[in-house]
């Protein structure tokens, strides 16, 4: 099932306009998730919205937003009032300026999106905007209204398309001074830095995200499989403490020696890494009374398709 666009509208650079659709570039829906259940009955827990004082359930139409100004004192704000002040969506991403990508502090980045042409028209205008950004070697800064709020978004070429990244406003980013001021100034010797550089060189490589493994997700799947098949789950032994580092120089030397002794496994040439089953929906489940070679794949409970969350 094709993903649904979070937003549809137009991308505009001065007088050049094209229809576009915005799709989230990341997803957490494929991770293993849990429901809360009643241990005694096995039934799923249901949450009700109740009045904190009376304990009575409150109907959705009687629930409004309130801004707390004092203990038990709230300023009531209705949905109509919020709609009156909400920014009217022009359904257009306006490109305001172009800046070097290096100028954007990583702390301002929120989440990435894919921006694609919407429909069969406008591909030429889309390509003009994309290639203009590419040739300038910069990122475009624009504005877009999502869920009644205006967001700043960067746009940069990604292959045949454009990747948009929502940015935080300055008031959302904390300064580092209050966290770093108490870090002591220490004097490091050249020998220490040289040893540390050798360790880094031993561990250096290229960025290959397909090699990353979510060990916790794998452990969750293994745990669920064992419980489904009735295999006892043994308690994990407490990890052994590595002890305190007494001498930094000795620790660096031992680390370097360890890295030299550890011979990395050669990567098979031309062999692509095994692709994980989409959403890890297929999990190996041992079948009682059969040999290991005859293990059967058990499908995860199919999730009810949920609507894509709105951006913002």
Characterise the protein shown here:
The chain has 312 residues and is of the alpha+beta class. It is 21% helix and 25% strand. It has six helices and eleven strands. The strands form three sheets. It has a seven-stranded mixed beta barrel with strand order 1-2-6-9-8-7-5. The chain has a two-stranded antiparallel sheet with strand order 3-4. A hairpin with a 2-residue loop joins strand 3 and strand 4. Helix 4 packs parallel to helix 6.
Keywords:
312 residues, alpha+beta, 7-stranded mixed barrel, two-stranded antiparallel sheet, 6 helices, 11 strands, disordered C terminus
Topology, number of strands: 11
Helix content: 10-25%
Spatial gap, N to C terminus: 23 Å
Question: How does the major sheet shape up?
Answer: 7 strands, mixed, barrel
Report the average pLDDT across residues: 81
List the helices and strands and how they pair.
Blueprint: E1 7-13, E2 16-24, E3 65-70, E4 73-77, H1 79-85, E5 92-99, E6 109-117, H2 123-136, E7 139-146, E8 149-158, E9 161-167, H3 177-180, H4 190-203, H5 215-228, H6 248-261, E10 282-285, E11 296-299
Summarize the structure.
The chain is an alpha+beta fold and 312 residues long. The protein has helices at 79-85, 123-136, 177-180, 190-203, 215-228, 248-261; strands spanning 7-13, 16-24, 65-70, 73-77, 92-99, 109-117, 139-146, 149-158, 161-167, 282-285, 296-299. It is extended, with a radius of gyration of 27 Å.
């Amino acid at each position: 099932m094709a993903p649904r666009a979070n937003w549809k509208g137009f991308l505009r650079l001065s007088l050049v306009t094209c229809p576009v659709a915005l799709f989230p570039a990341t997803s957490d829906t494929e991770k293993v998730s849990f429901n809360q259940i009643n241990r005694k009955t096995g039934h799923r827990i249901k949450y009700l919205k109740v009045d904190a004082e009376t304990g009575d359930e409150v109907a959705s139409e009687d629930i409004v937003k309130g801004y707390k100004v004092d203990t038990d004192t709230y300023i009531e704000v209705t949905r109509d009032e919020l709609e009156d002040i909400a920014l009217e969506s022009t359904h257009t991403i306006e490109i305001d300026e172009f800046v070097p990508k290096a100028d954007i502090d990583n702390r301002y980045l929120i989440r990435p999106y894919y921006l694609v042409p919407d429909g069969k028209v406008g591909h030429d205008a889309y390509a003009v905007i994309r290639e203009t950004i590419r040739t300038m070697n910069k990122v475009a800064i624009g504005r877009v209204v999502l869920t009644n709020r205006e967001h700043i978004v960067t746009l940069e070429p990604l292959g045949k398309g454009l990747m948009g990244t929502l940015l935080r406003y300055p008031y959302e980013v904390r300064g580092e001074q209050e966290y770093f001021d108490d870090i002591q100034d220490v004097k490091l010797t050249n020998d220490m830095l040289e040893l540390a550089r050798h360790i880094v060189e031993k561990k250096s490589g290229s960025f290959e995200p397909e090699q990353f493994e979510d060990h916790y997700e794998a452990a969750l799947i293994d745990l669920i499989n064992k419980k489904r098949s009735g295999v006892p789950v043994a308690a994990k032994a407490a990890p052994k403490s590595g002890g305190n580092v007494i001498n930094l120089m000795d620790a660096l030397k031992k680390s370097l020696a360890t890295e030299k002794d550890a011979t990395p496994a050669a990567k098979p040439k031309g062999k692509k890494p095994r692709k994980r089953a989409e959403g890890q929906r297929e999990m190996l489940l041992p079948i009682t009374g059969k040999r290991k070679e005859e293990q059967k794949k058990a499908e995860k409970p199919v999730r009810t398709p949920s609507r894509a969350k709105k951006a913002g």
